[in-house]
Write a structure and sequence with these properties.
YbdG; SH3 type barrels; 57% helix; cell inner membrane; transmembrane helix; 3 domains; alpha+beta; 413 residues; Mechanosensing system component YbdG; 17 helices; membrane
């Protein structure tokens, strides 16, 4: 800016009899207002032109990346660069008579330039993240964590630059000085560093994805993962509450991920009923005849009865004592009945493990366990299927002259 222009208002005011000091202040104010007005007009025009230009390109291209850039306001923030550069260039001319104020204003503008750069970088990274999340391949990846990592490094560099500007020292010298305080920095950013390391391990080992159902008893979490960031993992529980878990807890503590069950097409049913031991006995002929009336095990009873009868006759077994030879028990027949019932149940996945098994006897009785997988993995339907199966089991026990153990219930005489 020419020296005559810089002092235009000053010379005009002094020629009107205003003191030199007041004229200098008024000259600075007038020039500052003119510069701010010019910068505002440039900012407005640049923003409008850049928005129209970017919108036009976005409409013509097939990719939606440029649309995402616009949605994240990247062109708008880029437009602020030109007026900011104008301010930095002409501020020394405005404050030519006020070197102290000039130094402060220049530092403020340079700090604003760093902050604007950081904002543009954040807009760009967010745009990349949003674009990748539209791709099925990256939809369940913790991209938010990586964005945060990049921004942490960018903010560290930006903060270093801001302090270097404020204290008037070179960036390299300031960064070297901070290197001596690295232990303190590590302590301050301990959780961030742990979260960063955990995020990498979680991503590499594919431990958790967005949308996975996880159970983390230590933190009371039981629901779907809705967000994975650098420091935390957010889980929306089934009661719609949100549990926040430190990311590094995923690699330091034990949790359950139900993804395998969700993708397998079956949800495990593993529940048992305890049969009172005193109700288990060998079957007599009249009981066997009654059991032949039960459709599901009719063929089984006929086949097994014939095999047992042939064996006992061949070996001349004395059947006056029931325990001699081979025999059927009401417990064994009931187990076979349940196995057949489960195999014929329409809501059970027949391609996965399916069995009814007898567990180790307990002081209360002998557990009879159903181990199978429902074909519907939705929680509400799964509970209905399991409830339907065990309703039938509890109701059918009496037909086999068996009893369910109930605490405090005396054995009928």
């Amino acid at each position: 800016m020419d020296n005559n222009i810089r002092h235009f208002f000053y010379e005009f005011l002094t020629s009107r009899g205003i003191s030199d000091e007041i004229a200098a202040y008024l000259n600075m104010v007038f020039l500052l207002l003119a510069l701010l007005l010019f910068a505002f007009i440039v900012d407005y025009v640049t923003k409008r032109l850049l928005w129209r230009f970017s919108s036009g390109i976005a409409k013509k291209t097939k990719t939606n990346f440029d649309d995402i850039l616009i949605d994240n306001k990247l062109p708008r923030n880029v437009a602020h660069i030109i007026p900011l550069l104008i301010l930095i260039e002409f501020v020394p001319q405005v404050f030519v008579d006020f070197p102290y104020a000039e130094d402060i204003i220049e530092k403020v503008l340079k700090v604003l330039a760093i902050l604007l750069t950081l904002r543009i970088i954040r807009n760009f990274f967010n745009s990349v993240k949003d674009y990748l999340q539209t791709k099925p391949r990256y939809k369940d990846k913790p991209l938010h964590s990586y964005t945060q990592v990049f921004m942490i490094f960018a903010w560290l560099l930006g903060i270093f630059g801001i302090f270097a500007i404020i204290f008037g020292i070179s960036f390299i010298k300031f960064a070297t000085t901070l290197g001596a305080a690295s232990a303190i920095i590590l302590l301050i950013f301990r959780d961030t560093i742990l979260g960063f390391v955990a995020s990498i391990q979680v991503a590499i080992n594919d431990m958790v994805r967005i949308g996975d159902w996880i159970t983390f008893e230590k933190y009371g979490a039981d629901g779907d993962v809705i967000e994975i960031s650098l420091a935390t993992v957010k889980v929306q529980n089934w009661d719609k509450t949100i549990t926040t878990i430190p990311t590094y807890a995923l690699i330091s503590d034990s949790f359950k991920n139900w993804r395998g069950m969700m993708s397998s097409g079956g949800r495990r049913i593993k529940r048992s009923v305890i049969i009172r031991t005193s109700s288990i006995h060998f079957l007599e002929d009249n009981e066997i005849e009654e059991f032949k009336k039960i459709e599901l095990i009719k063929n089984y009873i006929n086949t097994r009865s014939k095999e047992i009868s042939e064996y006992n006759s061949k070996n001349a077994v004395d059947k006056s004592v029931l325990i001699n030879g081979r025999n059927l028990t009401n417990f064994g027949v009931f187990r076979k009945y349940l196995q057949t019932y489960i195999e014929n149940h329409s809501a059970i996945n027949k391609d996965m493990t399916l069995m009814v098994r007898q567990l180790e006897p307990t002081p209360q009785g002998i557990p009879m366990e159903v181990y199978a997988f429902s074909s519907d993995i939705r929680w509400q339907n799964y509970e209905y299927i399991m409830g339907d199966i065990f309703d039938h089991i509890l109701a059918s026990v009496g037909y086999f002259n068996l009893e369910i153990y109930e605490l405090g219930l005396a054995h009928p005489s």
